[in-house]
Design brief:
Elements: H1 3-31, H2 36-70, H3 79-88, H4 90-110, H5 114-127, H6 139-168, H7 174-207, H8 217-248, H9 254-279
Helix pairs in contact: 1-2, 1-5, 1-6, 1-9, 2-4, 3-4, 4-5, 5-6, 6-7, 6-9, 7-8, 8-9
Length: 285
């Protein structure tokens, strides 16, 4: 596996872990009512700790992997190259910030401060709009890109505790679970619409052209991502306006079908993040 592939894989793990912390944490803190929120937090604790560990490791690993992609391979990486990368390039400065945020993230998790963990994860995701070839050079463009990332990751990360909530509907926390599902449906509309709208705006402002022109590998990757996110949105709309009403009418299979489509959405979202991990390393021009 070459250094660029390793860098893309590292970014995939990093971004996925942050999405879980941001979306999953937001669902537990602001969507799920007590005592469901406490039950979900306990169930999600191993995944949360793993995600924080992955963020810390990948934040540090980005530095030598990026240096290797600039040099002729990992064998050519030395202390002087890494020092120059971190001190003299904007990309290096962003890497250092990610490492600093990762330390703060781990500290907040160890201190059992979920809302602080949530806030730091959001900051780290926002910062991704300032790194990579696909980062817009204007402040307004970066804000749009940050909004797209936050909306998309809120949606994707929340699907994990949403799936766990579905399993609680038939248990002792039925009323709280139904309330959480209803609230997530409302907030999900905002997240889905934001991810699509800000994503299309980002695709156009980054290159100054529509990705539909398909004039580069970057455009093809963006079109693939748009297709994946669009499919996720279609599944979400079908769930909201077809599956959920069917469940309310007493359909015995609707809840199981909703769980399966949620797993499918997670798979689509992971594929979208993998696509981003690849085209963030490509030159959009």
């Amino acid at each position: 596996m070459n250094d660029v592939a390793l860098l893309a894989g590292n970014k995939l793990l990093h971004d996925t872990a942050l999405a879980l912390l941001w979306g999953g944490g937001g669902y537990i803190e602001f969507v799920a009512p007590a005592p469901l929120s406490g039950s979900l937090a306990k169930a999600m604790k191993p995944a949360t700790c793993t995600a924080v560990t992955v963020v810390a490791i990948t934040a540090v690993a980005t530095i030598p992997l990026s240096a290797a992609s600039i040099a002729e391979g990992m064998a050519s990486v030395d202390v002087d190259l890494i020092r120059e990368l971190l001190s003299q390039t904007s990309v290096g400065h962003q890497m250092l910030l990610q490492v600093l945020f990762a330390v703060l993230l781990a500290t907040a998790t160890l201190l059992s401060s979920p809302r602080t963990t949530l806030a730091i994860a959001g900051l780290m995701l926002s910062q991704l709009a300032f790194a990579g070839h696909g980062a817009d050079k204007t402040f307004g463009g970066r804000l749009i890109q940050s909004a797209h990332i936050l909306c998309g990751c809120a949606w994707l990360g929340a699907l994990i505790p949403f799936y766990l909530t579905l399993r609680e509907v038939g248990g002792s926390l039925r009323q709280q679970s139904i309330a959480a599902l209803r609230r997530f449906s409302e907030w999900g509309h905002i997240a889905v619409a934001g991810a699509l709208a800000f994503g299309l705006a980002t695709a156009c402002t980054t290159t100054g052209r529509s990705p539909a022109s398909a004039s580069s590998s970057y455009d093809f990757a963006v079109l693939l991502k748009i297709g994946l996110v669009g499919t996720m949105a279609a599944v979400a709309v079908a769930n909201r306006y077809w599956v959920v009403p069917s469940w309310k009418r007493g359909s015995p299979t609707s809840l199981a079908f909703l769980a399966r489509t949620t797993v499918a959405e997670v798979a689509l979202g992971m594929t979208a993040i993998a696509t981003v991990a690849v085209f963030s390393l490509l030159d959009p021009h």
